[in-house]
Amino acid sequence: MKHYEVEPHATIAEIKNLFTKTHPQWYPARQSLRLDPKGKSLKDEDVLQKLPVGTTATLYFRDLGAQISWVTVFLTEYAGPLFIYLLFYFRVPFIYGHKYDFTSSRHTVVHLACICHSFHYIKRLLETLFVHRFSHGTMPLRNIFKNCTYYWGFAAWMAYYINHPLYTPPTYGAQQVKLALAIFVICQLGNFSIHMALRDLRPAGSKTRKIPYPTKNPFTWLFLLVSCPNYTYEVGSWIGFAIMTQCLPVALFSLVGFTQMTIWAKGKHRSYLKEFRDYPPLRMPIIPFLL
Amino acid sequence: MGRLTEAAAAGSGSRAAGWAGSPPTLLPLSPTSPRCAATMASSDEDGTNGGASEAGEDREAPGERRRLGVLATAWLTFYDIAMTAGWSLALLPRLASNSWAQVTSCISLMSSWDYRWLVLAIAMVRFYMEKGTHRGLYKSIQKTLKFFQTFALLEIVHCLIGIVPTSVIVTGVQVSSRIFMVWLITHSIKPIQNEESVVLFLVAWTVTEITRYSFYTFSLLDHLPYFIKWARYNFFIILYPVGVAGELLTIYAALPHVKKTGMFSIRLPNKYNVSFDYYYFLLITMASYIPLFPQLYFHMLRQRRKVLHGEVIVEKDD
Question: Is B130 a catalytic residue?
């Protein structure tokens, strides 16, 4: 048990800093402080005197384990696929037979796929650096291994087949590729529009939460039907990519991603409903009218 | 000026979330899968999933103990009785002699699942006694084995609709690994059906299931003899490694046949730009036992200490 004397208007963040001074191995990001050992974590912005405590407050500490910043995780997990795909695209030695080293595919769609895939991850990297505003600063360290395995693993698996010397182009030829490209581009623009709209909802440095609404940008009109249109557009992009490459691993990646994003979207939708009494009733979490 | 007392209690959060946290693709079946709420403590998990999830809140694992409603108990009992009736008709003629009838009447209290695994065990013993060899054993019991091992899929449904408190994923993974062994290995790869290793895992599974279903039945009836609880939490110590050894040796024996025939495999080029090599898949499956088996085993040892010796497992504290 440790005792600290603080002003009544002290925030949890300040208390965490005090705690770190006496326990330097537990930096603030890995501290979870709560009023009840089994209760919810207190937020950094919470002010002591606004909490249900008397003149003496007892806080319980839980170690969240080593933490890593969200930005670091995102950059790592997105840079991987970008780089890995290119290894396969350029047919770097030891992937395919030696007679194929550094050769180039004769199918246009393979080059197009590389451009799309690379564009997608460059966009994600730039958004991480310049667009997103994160509510949490950190996440547990073990997540970076989990996430990178997922992204890097799937990227390698997809890239292997698309850039394979024995790759078979789509059954319906240029028509199929053009359609798929259109879907992909529209969804990329849509996804970016939603990210910008969400960013504009929240002023820099704050953690406020508001209901997102459609703006003048037509891509954001999906907010009328869906709580998380960014996920909707993301699934759409990958479906487009799957049609473009006609590659089963891409379809599987889209499916897994869709499953995960649906879980997140449902969670987000639920917290919107809980937090805002006047939340638009027409909206579904991720697929208009359906899911 | 307020005084603030801070208690560094509540223990460290870095519990071994281990296998419970991220379900692996294939899991050797644990002889003691946690199911019944009666005595099995739920394996706690630190809900800190800040990672890929955008809502990274702390969540405690809900350790609820559901009381089975009348309807659920009735269904499970009916399911059991229906199975017993159906299978007794099919299998009893095999067990002609008096002594067998006495044995089976003694154990008539057990669930029909348990009953059928017991019948399977008896069929296996009789075969060995009559033939003096394990060759042909698999062939003689394969229909029964396939029928109710496949029927175990129903247990996933039990978890899904909530009349059984185990997680769907855990049960799903365990049932899948059994189905994998039965259908994708022993059924599909005929040359290995007479391997000794097949008998090894069949024996392990049979004894495990008999113990497990006895445990469930008696718990359902609220009348659990100590020795059944003891058996459930001790047999696995031997049975689990034996079963795993049997499974691994069987898969290993199957490898040459798989490689030669190229079964279950897809090659390039093809329309969907995918390939699958069953041989390498089996190699990876075997390798996956290495991280998974110890995790499961130690998890069960911990459960055993909790249940049998009432030990309070103290996590790392400040």
Answer: no
